[in-house]
Design goal:
The protein is of the alpha+beta class and 502 residues long. It contains 16 helices and 7 strands.
Length: 502
């Protein structure tokens, strides 16, 4: 017995020494980067992570270097949206991997840089590009044949499927990952992954992702609780059996037997306490589960009622406003605001419906839209249309509304002798882009996502209600496309309407 205790003590000391060695395995630059990040200094942390990447690579530790490079890359776009710098750093890391990596290890390292690109495109809402990077991740994971990489791929695919609304694929992929971790009894990792997935859903305001995550999480938790209790009981029973066998092998002296009986009693008490505690935790969790489900259902119902209420108020005010003097700026502003609310509400209610499309001559369409703003621009402003004489399969009503709104905005904000350009680009067999650009002041980076959100501030309605761009964004999304601001355009502002055929 004493020998066993001595061996356990030695094992613990060796384990602690190994953990200490792991901690000190980080070089000074990485430790300083982690410290600066913990203090809330992401810019300083980013610079130190990049230096740590270079230091590790020069020292022959490619894996840890790539890890630091990826962490530094995140700090470019998570807070500051510096996508160009982030993509440049990833290209540099990939070049280093190609030059110094070997075999499966090279594929595993390329996986993490490819995942970063996937996450960046997801954040930029460029779903087709994110999908392409996901295929590259699958190829790298297959070549790497690394369990950690394969598990991470399943997790990342789950988030992607839920984000793009493919709940059935998300459920299947998540179940595969959870089953693998549960089979290896890594319950803590499964729980951590579920919590991360739920947090991502809340962060992205995706009610479907939160709901699906909770549903899967609760189902797994119920089964995992029983497995944990069974494992605990199994360990304690084995310990009891080992003690009983040891007693039989030792001398049959009364003192030894009494000590063993006391030990068995303590183990039995611990087993009973563990079972009671497990039952209490399980009951509390079941209650929490029901409460969470009710909360999510109530939130969804409240959102639907809120949208209906706002739309109803707008509809009821319209007849009264029509009786007032429309020549008064305030009355006209209220009428426009009421109409915009109705439009936005109808678009949101039709989000799941299929938008009808037809073949439209883009050259003729663009020329006609540009003609409508000729009398609205300032002196000396040059208007240019760059659209070929070809047909595109689009929804003419939505596209015309979006482009005309963007052109009117450009006419308002373009200074004298400036330029306004409307372009059409064919980006693939089924992909199209309309680009509206104008010279003048640019939109600050921190406001580029905000301009597409409705009701983000209290406004004087006579100067505009701020719903024009949110309506355009919603129309683009309903066409299975998107509308965003080109961050690479620095001579003013360029809006890009992304569309694709069904």
């Amino acid at each position: 017995m004493r020998k066993k205790l001595l061996m356990v003590g030695i094992s613990l000391l060796m384990c602690c020494a190994w953990v200490g060695a792991q901690e000190t395995g980080k070089n000074e630059l990485q430790q300083r980067a982690e410290s600066e990040y913990a203090k809330g200094n992401p810019i300083a942390a980013r610079a130190l992570y990049i230096k740590a990447f270079e230091s590790y690579v020069n020292g022959g530790n490619l894996k840890q270097g790539v890890d630091c490079g990826v962490k530094g890359n995140k700090l470019y776009y998570e807070k500051e949206n510096l996508y160009k710098e982030a993509f440049d750093l990833l290209r540099r890391i990939d070049q280093t991997i190609e030059a110094k990596g070997q075999g499966a290890n090279k594929a595993a390292l390329h996986y993490w840089t490819t995942k970063e690109r996937h996450l960046m495109y997801m954040k930029m809402r460029k779903m087709e590009s994110a999908k392409e990077q996901m295929k590259n991740m699958e190829n790298h994971a297959q070549a790497a044949n690394d369990a950690a990489v394969k598990n991470d791929l399943l997790y990342t695919k789950t988030i992607y499927y839920y984000t793009v609304g493919q709940s059935e694929k998300g459920n299947a992929t998540f179940k595969e990952m959870a089953d693998q971790l549960t089979a290896s009894k890594e319950y803590g990792k499964v729980d951590e992954v579920y919590q991360t997935l739920i947090a991502n859903g809340r962060k992205s305001n995706s009610a479907s992702l939160v709901a699906e995550s909770y549903k899967s999480y609760m189902a797994w938790k119920d089964s995992a609780s029983a497995l944990v209790l069974a494992d605990t009981v199994g360990v304690l029973k084995k310990q009891i059996a080992d003690n009983e066998a040891e007693i039989d092998e030792k001398d049959s002296s009364l003192t030894a037997r009494q000590a063993a009986i006391v030990g068995l009693g303590i183990l039995a008490a611990v087993l009973a306490a563990a079972l009671v505690l497990g039952a209490i935790v399980l009951m509390r969790y079941m209650y929490s589960n029901r409460k969470q489900k009710k909360t999510i259902k109530l939130l969804n119902e409240n959102n639907a009622l809120k949208a209906k209420f706002i739309s109803s108020i707008s509809a009821q005010l319209a007849p009264t406003l029509q009786k007032l003097d429309k020549g008064t700026p305030e009355v006209k502003a209220l009428l426009d605001f009421s109409e915009h609310i109705q439009t936005l509400s109808e678009l949101e209610n039709a989000a799941e419906e299929t938008v009808e499309k037809e073949d439209v001559q883009v050259g003729t369409l663009c020329e006609g839209l540009m003609e409508q703003i000729q009398g609205k621009v300032k002196s000396g402003v040059n208007l240019k249309v760059d659209a070929p004489k070809m047909a595109a399969h689009i929804n003419k009503e939505y596209v015309s509304h979006i482009l005309l709104h963007l052109l009117k905005n450009a006419a308002q904000y373009t200074p004298e002798d400036g330029h306004i350009t409307l372009e059409y680009k064919k980006r693939g067999a089924h992909k199209h882009q309309f680009l509206v650009s104008n010279t003048g002041s640019s939109i600050p980076e921190e406001q580029r996502e905000e301009v597409f959100k409705p009701f983000r501030e209290v406004r004087d309605l006579t100067t505009g209600d701020g719903l024009g761009l949110p309506i355009c964004k919603r129309m683009a999304l309903n066409m299975n496309g998107d509308l965003d601001i080109d961050p690479a355009f620095t001579k003013g502002v360029r809006f890009v309407l992304h569309l694709q055929d069904d």
